[in-house]
Predict the structure.
Amino acid sequence: MTTTLDDRMQIVFATDLQARSRTLLGVAGDLARAIPASITLVHALQPELGRGLSGGDRQTLWVRARQEAEAALDLQVRELADAGIEVGAPVLALDEPVDRAILVVVEARGADMVVAGSTAREGKGHRIGSTADRLLRTSPVPVLVLRGEPTVPFGSVALLTDFSPRSRRAHITGVRALPTTDEATIHLVHVGDETLRVLAATYEERTLTEAIDETRTLGEALGLPAGRIQPRVEWGRDPLDVLLPILAADEYDALVLGTHGHGGFRRALIGSVAMGLAQSAPCSVLVVPGDG
C-alpha cells in the first residue's frame, strides 16, 4: 500500500524489521509528518544467511526469509500509510548490505535524509560497528541516528560548532530538517581549549566573542529572530569528555554537527568526535556530510 510521491522532502529509513526498528519507525513517521516528507523503507537480507547449508536447504531458507521480510515490510508500509504518512515503494535488498542498498535508493530517488537506529552498546569504544556506522562514513546526505527515547518534535537542540563555514552549513541544514516545538531551546555549542584558556590571555574573550558573532550570523542566515539561538561555550581538553555529560545533564533531544569533507563520494573517516557522539550521545545525532 503506497501513495504517489510528490516533490516533498524524502527520507530513507533503514529497518531491520525487529521490535526496536518498529518503535523508531514510529519516530521517523512523526518526523515525516512534521516536515512534511515521504518515507522509503529499506531492508536487506544478510548475504551469509544459510551459509554452510546444502544448496537446496539454503535455497529453501532464502525463499522463506524473503517471503517473511516482504510481509514484514508490507506491514510497516501499511502502518505508516494508515497513519497518513506518504510512503514510497519499499526496497528489499537480496545481494548487498543494507547500507549499500540505502545509498542506491538515495541516489535513485533523490533522497534528502537517511534515518537509522543505533545498535551501539556500552563498553565497545567509539565505533558503532553497524549500518549506522557505515552510513555515517559514506552517505552523501545527512544521516539522523536515533538514540535514546526520541520524540518529535524536538524540544531542545544543540548545534556543535568550530566556527567554520562548514559547521554553519550543517546547522542551517539541521535546523531546517529537524522539527522543533515553538518553545524549543536551540544552543550553538562550542568546546574551547582549556589549555589555551589558561595560557593565552585573550583566548577566552576572543572565543566568547566569536560564539556570539557566529550565533548572530547563523540566526540571520536562517531568518530567525534575534535570541532564538543562544551561544554556549564550554571548556575542556577532550570534546567528548565535555559534551557527553552536558548532553545528558541538560537533556538535549538532538545534536547537529558537520563532518570534514574529504573529497569524492566516500569518506574513510568522519572524525573521532563525530563518531564518538554518534556512538555514545544520550540523544539523537544528525550528522551532515561536509562534501559538496
In short: The longest strand covers residues 180-193. The chain is about 40% helix and 25% strand.
